[in-house]
Write a structure and sequence with these properties.
The structure is a single chain. The chain has 406 residues and is an alpha+beta fold. The longest helix is centred in the middle third of the chain and has 32 residues. It contains 18 helices and 12 strands. The chain has a 5-stranded mixed beta sheet, with helices on both faces. Helix 5 packs across helix 12. It has one domain: Cytochrome P450 (Cytochrome p450, Orthogonal Bundle), CATH 1.10.630.
Length: 406
């Protein structure tokens, strides 16, 4: 077993957070599973193992469907954190069958491919409008001016959030997502709890309004969705709406700015993309792989498993390193090279198995729309200043991305 002090894994070190990929190569060389004491987790860095474990039903996002905290050898969360856990733990991302199966089936009745496809003109029109404003201003912050408002507006439009209320969403989301980092502080937890209370109250009122006056929006669809007598409870609707709002823009925001920062650092690939906009679909996939917006995904071990001769006991927690898996040379040729024409690209940025991202088709539409608008309307887009990376490790992004349009 490799000791934690010997591992090149340092999720609280700004230098590691700035560029974890060389360390991932060393982790993959060290072995298929590595014990990391500071977070009491087993790190899994290789693509084949991560892809298999995402589909392994001996692992779960929760254990509460089978065990109490005591039976599983875990300490329950502090009572003060309860509002966050009520909101988070009733969403399908953190549930296992049969509840996950039931909720995802009901959500899928409202969140259909047709619903997503119907949004396409709105997404492209809004992307064009946002990029047009950026061009008219001669530049600005690509994150604040394009990357953030686009997916926030799209998922809010889809859910039926009134336009005047949409500025509330990003701060709530940022506060709640702080709890997904490794060993979050009490201050982080307190912010997440406040945001969970406010967000839940807001959604409860919105759901009540849609019950009285249904519309064509997704919340009305969640209220109406039923299957063999099953319906979503009010808490499940609140948690589902919050999950769709948070997951529906968090990854897209970060994928956009991470992607353009990668393009600016690889001018040959940016030039190829500008010369051939038909590369946009493969470019979106490659940028999601190259600098993965969600670096780590956790699962509980519900039944003992064995990886490469090491037994991981029930009650342990596995940390699957998506960023490392997406740079595994066993799967990707020249993985540290950005190749926008890469065809064989089985990245796992949207996860896999039963928890595969339900919003992946929408995210791809948004990423392609903003990229196409920027290529069309800002062909001379340049970097104005070196960006500062956010200190977060798990959710990887930038504080901003200053650009100039000449």
């Amino acid at each position: 077993m490799t000791a934690a002090s010997d591992l090149p894994f340092a999720p609280w070190d700004p230098a590691f957070v700035a560029d974890p990929y060389p360390a991932y190569a060393e982790l993959r060389a060290r072995g298929r599973v590595l014990r990391y004491e500071p977070t009491d987790q087993w790190l899994v860095p290789r693509h084949a193992d991560v892809a298999a474990l995402l589909r392994d039903r001996r692992l779960g996002r929760t254990y509460r469907h089978r065990f109490t905290h005591a039976e599983f050898g875990r300490t329950p969360p502090p009572p003060a954190h309860e509002p966050f856990h009520v909101l988070n733990d009733h969403g399908m991302l953190d549930l296992e069958p049969p509840d996950h199966t039931r909720i995802r089936r009901l959500v899928s009745k409202a969140f259909t491919p047709r619903t997503v496809e119907r949004l396409k003109p709105y997404v492209h029109e809004l992307a064009g409008r946002l990029v047009g404003a950026l061009v008219e201003a001669g530049g600005g912050d690509l994150l604040a001016d394009v990357a953030e408002p686009l997916p926030v507006a799209v998922i809010a439009e889809m859910l039926g959030i009134p336009e005047a209320d949409r500025p509330l969403l990003r701060p709530w989301s940022a506060a709640i997502c702080g709890m997904y980092e490794l060993n979050p502080s009490e201050e982080t937890a307190a912010r997440a709890v406040r945001a969970s209370v406010e967000f839940s109250e807001y959604l409860r009122e919105l759901i009540a309004a849609r019950r009285e006056n249904p519309g064509e929006d997704l919340i009305s669809g969640l209220i109406a969705a039923h299957d063999e007598g099953d319906r979503l409870t009010e808490q499940e609707m609140i948690s589902t709406a919050a999950l769709l709002l948070n997951a529906g823009h968090e990854a897209t925001v970060n994928a956009t700015v991470n992607g353009w920062w990668a393009l600016f650092r690889n001018p040959d690939q940016l030039a190829a993309l500008r010369a051939d906009h038909a590369l946009v679909p493969t470019a979106v996939e490659e940028l999601m792989r190259y600098d993965t917006p969600l670096q780590l995904f956790e699962r509980w071990v519900l039944d003992d498993i064995e990886i490469d001769g090491t037994t991981i006991p029930r009650g342990a927690e596995i940390a699957m390193l998506f960023g490392s898996a997406n740079h595994d040379p066993e799967v990707f040729a020249a993985p540290d090279r950005l190749d926008l024409a890469r065809r064989d690209n089985p990245h796992i940025s949207f996860s896999a198995g039963i928890h595969y991202c339900i919003g992946a088709p929408l995210a791809r539409i948004e990423l392609a729309a903003s990229m196409t608008a920027l290529l069309d309307r800002a062909p001379a887009l340049t970097l104005a200043a070196e960006p500062e990376r956010k200190p977060n490790f798990v959710i990887r992004g930038l504080e901003g991305l200053a650009v100039t349009v000449r």
